[in-house]
Amino acid sequence: MHVLVIGGGISGLAAAHRLSSRGVRTTVLEASSRVGGKVQAGSVAGAAAVDLGAESMLARRPEAVELARAAGLGEDLTAPDVTGGALWNRGEIRPMPKGHVMGVPGDAEALRGIVSPEGLARIAEDERLPRTELGEDAAIGEYVAARLGREVVDRLVEPLLGGVYAGDAYRISMRAAVPQLYEAARQEPSLLAAVRAVQRESRRAAERAEGEQPPAFLGVRGGLGRLPQAVADACRAAGAEVRTGTRVRRLERAADGWGAVVEGPEGERSLTADAVVVAVPAPAAAELLRAESPGAAVELAAFEYASMALVTMAFRRSEVSLPGGSGFLVPPVEGRSIKAATFSGSKWRWVAEQAPELTLVRTSLGRYGEERVLERDDAELAALARTDLAAAAGITAEPVDTLVTRWDAGLPQYPSGHPARVGRIRAALGSVPRLALCGAALDGVGIPACVASGRSAADQALAEAGESSKREGRESHV
Ligand SMILES: Cc1cc2nc3c(=O)[nH]c(=O)nc-3n(C[C@H](O)[C@H](O)[C@H](O)COP(=O)(O)OP(=O)(O)OC[C@H]3O[C@@H](n4cnc5c(N)ncnc54)[C@H](O)[C@@H]3O)c2cc1C
User: Fold this and answer.
1) Is 43 a member of any domain?
2) What pLDDT does residue 333 have?
3) Are residues 392 and 423 in the same domain?
4) What is the Cβ-side half-sphere exposure of residue 421, based on CA atoms within 13 angstroms?
């Protein structure tokens, strides 16, 4: 059995790891010159390692942590030194309030100091309003605004969701982004009651879990950007081939599997396999599936992405004094250029230890619908980031180095109706045997969701190829 995995981001690598560790002949085909996709290591100020893309992974879901351990990074998994971010709210940095689910509070008091007194009174109205029926899905911003008022969305939900999707809360699918809250809101009489129900359930889950609670997030000493290479090495050690600089141009069904036309260092070639895992972003998947599954391709081509840029700055430690905490989020209503700032050396001890003379700060710019800022050149983006850092945290020192990393089409958007669209794609692909789709566009953009999606695509491809070869074996015997 030979399986091709198209795309060497974390989803494809997770699929390849699953396949190769089960003894299946696996070939990963990655278009760019490195594996990892949106997970990328880099360095600033000469040698200080930094993450240029994803930097932490949710550890309350097991998949990404399991993959890191299996790839030999178990000893290097590390929790943030400080947790609990902050908000740049009405010109002031304030600690992130507690007692909310993705910015939606369980009672008005939770947001005192963040929303205005009128905003607090509006939140309390929720329990007097008639129920708002939630259909198959809703845009979370619209729904929360209808129940609790726009201020909650603009001040809290928007920056928190923005941190995950670089999206617009007034479009994002409630069902996909906060599924527990969506379910609770269908049962409970009010949204506040739904939040309290979700909070009760997570308290119960914490009580049920024995022993100490693991940290919510983990990173990797030296950078999460080490993860893809470590997984690729583990795949190679298990016999897989991982080819970079190899773009898949076309996929064609063959009598007993698939043929792929690839363009790599040796020019254009054809490869064959018993099954294929497609682990590329939605527009690329649409291109590859156009001939064999036009229905899935049309849906995939309709996905929208947000672009963003990260500006990472290294300052002389002696010249800056940071506020406490790991950084801050910026609600778009503040009208600033940056959407978030991470004090990398405060958040991750390894960052501070590797370059004790430096203070590293990473800021992000751009989100869905606000990409015009990204038309500026790197120097202008860096200047915007510095202006905002000076206003927010009084950081006026000259950085010793500044790195601008652009992520064009970095994050798929999950608008209201997203789960139904994914359902239609899966239904269309149901009639395409021995092919499985995975990746950030489907069931979650976070690293654990991508790993889960890669693993289940690997299992599906194996099961389908195994089933058909059993059938073929039987038929030829007859
Ligand atoms: C700036 C940024 C910060 C983030 N921070 C976090 C974070 O802290 N925590 C978190 O959990 N998530 C974070 N995310 C989200 C997460 O990193 C991504 O959703 C995830 O890495 C996507 O993985 P993927 O494998 O599905 O896709 P990708 O990483 O996009 O990988 C797809 C791969 O397919 C390749 N490819 C495309 N077309 C072809 C082709 N025709 N042939 C061969 N190869 C092809 C591409 O080159 C790419 O390497 C962040 C994302 C961004 C952009």
Assistant:
1) no
2) 95
3) no
4) 22
Q: Please report the DSSP string for 307-361 in residue order.
A: EEEEEEEEEEGGG--PPSSSEEE--GGG--SEEEEEEHHHH-HHHHHH-TTEEEE
Atom of ligand 1 nearest to the CA of 10: 25
Q: Which domain holds residue 320?
A: 306-412
| Opening angle at CA 33, ends 51 and 230, nearest 5 | 55
CA–CA dist 409, 445 (Å, integer): 13
pLDDT score recorded for residue 469: 59
CA distance 368 to 5: 29
How high is the pLDDT of residue 22? 96
The answer to whether residue 42 is domain-embedded is no
CATH, residue 138 = 1.10.3110.10
Residue 122 phi/psi, 5° resolution?
-65, -40
The answer to whether residues 160 and 235 belong to one domain is no
Same domain, 335 and 436: no
Total of domains in the chain: 3
Taking only the tens place, the pLDDT of each residue in 173-220 is 999 999 999 999 999 999 999 999 999 999 998 888 877 778 899 999
Q: Report residues of the chain scoring pLDDT below 50.
A: 473-478
Tell me the whole-structure pTM to 2 decimals. 0.96
Residues with CB under 6 A from ligand 1: 6-12, 29-32, 37-39, 53-57, 247-248, 279-281, 284, 308, 310, 407, 410-411, 439-440, 445-447, 450
